Amino acid sequence: MAVAMQEESARRRARSLAGGRSRRPGQGATRKAPAVKGPRQPSAWLNWIIILAGAGVVVAAALQAYLKLEAIPVQHITVTGELEHTQTEVVQEMVQPALVGGFLNADLRRIQQQLEELPWIYQATVQRRWPNALEIHVVEQLPIARWGEDGFLNHEGEVFRSESVGEGPALPLLWGPEGTARSLMVRYQRIIEILAPLHLAVEQLAVDERGQVEVALQGGMRVMVGSNDFLERMHRFVAIYRAELASRFAQVERVDLRYEQGVAVTYAEAEAEAEAGADTSRVAGI
């Protein structure tokens, strides 16, 4: 019995040794290493909360900075441009009510419109200059002629009014019904071009309700142009002036061009001689 048990034990040891020799290297029993856990990732909600909090801080800082800028008053007003009829002080005083809200709240469009309502300002440009200044550039009206009793015509034929006509330079006077300013300005420019070679200057140009045009020249001569054939009649005047009137300019009172084929000339001595029964007015054919 004891011998049998010993033999069985020997066989087990032999099998155990044989099994150990038959295993391939590296295939022995190994224990799994425990998994190492990384840091826990924050959730999506936490990320959004952080982003929103950062954005709120930025917005709050920007709002605070804006409120500080908004409260800055305009401390300097610079007016540039060639000013002959508009005082810088008047411009600076006019814009003050629009600056009550501060530098950023100043209504530049309103300021521009108010300035351009002044009689002698044709165009105004208003700009901010950081941090607390306002720059105004002014272009004054360019008057070409006087219009009526209290107005002027600018270079575009637009009427502007002034409290004192004496503020403007010595200019020819244009008269006409309402709405005729631009067309009369065009005629005036053509007339001065036609008369320039004759060294004649226009003192007054008028058109009545019927469209009859009358020109008063410097020196006293009046030219009745009428309502039709404006250019043809003015060229006719040039011809008769060169032929006959230039040498007697001081004696000519009126030249009437409202004839189809001729010109009527009235001389200064006509009135005196008419009292004696003579009339020196005549129609000359051209």
Secondary-structure element string: HHEHHEEEEEEHEEEHEEHE
Which class of secondary structure composition applies to the elements? Answer: alpha/beta
- Main β-sheet, spatial strand arrangement: 6-5-4-7-8-9-10-11-12-13
Tell me the span between the first and last alpha carbons: 173 Å
Q: How much strand?
A: 15-25%
Share in helix: 25-40%
Number of domains: 2
Task: Count every helix, treating DSSP H or I runs of 4 or more residues as helices.
Answer: 7
CATH architecture of the largest domain: 3-Layer(aba) Sandwich
Biggest pleated-sheet summary: 10 strands, mixed
Shape category: elongated
Total strands: 13
Q: What is the CATH class of the largest domain?
A: Alpha Beta
Low-confidence stretches: 25-29, 275-280
| CATH fold category name of the largest domain | Rossmann fold
CATH superfamily membership of the largest domain: Cell division protein FtsQ/DivIB
Radius of gyration, Cα only, in angstroms? 50 Å
Summed over residues and divided by their number, the pLDDT gives a mean of 81
Describe, in plain words, how this protein is organized in 3D.
- By secondary structure, the protein is an alpha/beta fold.
- It has two domains: 70-140, Roll (Ubiquitin-like (UB roll)), CATH 3.10.20; 143-285, Rossmann fold (3-Layer(aba) Sandwich), CATH 3.40.50.
- The chain is 36% helix and 24% strand.
- It has helices at 2-22, 44-70, 88-95, 108-116, 181-195, 230-245, 270-275; strands at 76-80, 121-129, 133-140, 143-147, 151-154, 159-161, 173-175, 202-207, 213-217, 222-226, 252-256, 262-267, 282-285.
- A ten-stranded mixed sheet has the order 6-5-4-7-8-9-10-11-12-13, with helices on one face.
- The longest helix is centred in the N-terminal third of the chain and has 27 residues, at 44-70.
- It is elongated.
- The chain starts with a helix and ends with a strand.
